[in-house]
Amino acid sequence: MAGIYLHIPFCKQRCSYCDFHFSTQFKSYQSRMVDAICKELVERKNETKEIIQTIYFGGGTPSLLEAEELQEILQTIQREYQVDPLAEITLEANPDDIIPDKLKSWKEAKVNRLSIGLQSFRAEDLAWMNRAHTAEESLRCVAWAKEAGILQISVDLIYGLPQFSIEAWDQQIQTVIDMGVQHISAYCLTVEEKTLLEKKVEAGEIVPSNPEEQADQFQYLIQKLSQNGYEQYEISNFCSPDNYSKHNTSYWQGKTYLGIGPSAHSFDGKTRRWNLSNNPQYMAKLEKGEQFWEVEHLSEADRFNEKIMVGLRTKWGVSLHDLRAIHEIPASFSQKVKEYSDKGWVCLQSDTITLTPEGKLLADWLASEFFL
């Protein structure tokens, strides 16, 4: 068993670009939600007998949990599952929540890795994003985390922002490098449906960057981080030597995991399961013993395509041996490997396909070209 993902569906406020499942009106039922999450953990303990190697609190904003609530969830996992004593336990946190008292409680709860949603150090960006933290909080939170003894730290950045120059992007990257974090996740801004950002774009209040600017910033990111000792091990993820996110790497390598909480997804190798994306319904159905999830049984073609989709995003690529174990590889597949290899977009070596630097700019499209 690779791990357990826990979706904590609470946020202080709605970021303009976000389409994840969460609520900003949760105080009246916060403890009830924690009870429901613990109940789901207990009910699903027989789905695996493998050792839990990673635990990941995502959301939402898990750093809004009270210390006692975080402890309750982790104690439930320790009691009901076999947990590796060296398990990676990650908590997603916003800079405004990273204060000495909370850091101390997280450390006591055995959290050993933070994933911090910095996004930007520029006050003007944080304003239109509707982020709850300030640039000053972003600058100090990493130092405070290290002082508290949480040394494994990942930070998130967003590029492709409106009116965002290479010079501004360079300053963002350099600031993170100077912080001395082991892991950086960098995502290109996308305008998702039914978000505040979409409304602002449609109203002409915000003009998004164009694909050429986004590609230039992506390539600059790769170059700058490489020069400073970071390895791009997945399209959007970079780390200092051997400091991969173990939990997220398990997703990309197709390992199994439990997803706990509203909207959380699970994978057992052959089926995907996802919980209701509705907080009141999730809690009520759990309390009544009713079904609160849906299941999809993956066909051979689904598994083949997923192996390509996630594998090509990583430095490890896609093993043809692994693909053959799922489904016969069609002749058209080999033809496309040669075609895109000749174009300089993919590389076939030792029976494994990986993307070239140029191919990474076309990752999603190239993956779809190899689908059954």
Tags for this model:
alpha/beta; TIM Barrel; Arc Repressor Mutant, subunit A; 2 domains; 3-stranded antiparallel sheet; 14 helices; globular
Can you tell me about this structure?
By secondary structure, this protein is an alpha/beta fold. The chain has 2 domains: 3-252, TIM Barrel, CATH 3.20.20.70; 300-369, Winged helix-like DNA-binding domain superfamily/Winged helix DNA-binding domain (Arc Repressor Mutant, subunit A). Helix content is 40%, strand content 22%. It has a 9-stranded mixed β-sheet with strand order 7-8-6-5-4-3-2-1-9, with helices on both faces. Strand 10 and strand 11 form a beta hairpin. Helix 1 (30-43) crosses helix 10.
Describe this structure in a few short sentences.
The chain has 372 residues and is α/β, with parallel strands linked by helices. It has helices at residues 30-43, 67-80, 100-108, 123-129, 135-147, 166-179, 196-202, 211-227, 246-252, 279-288, 300-311, 320-326, 331-342, 363-369; strands spanning 3-8, 52-59, 83-93, 113-119, 152-159, 183-188, 231-234, 237-239, 257-260, 265-267, 271-275, 293-297, 318-319, 346-349, 352-355.
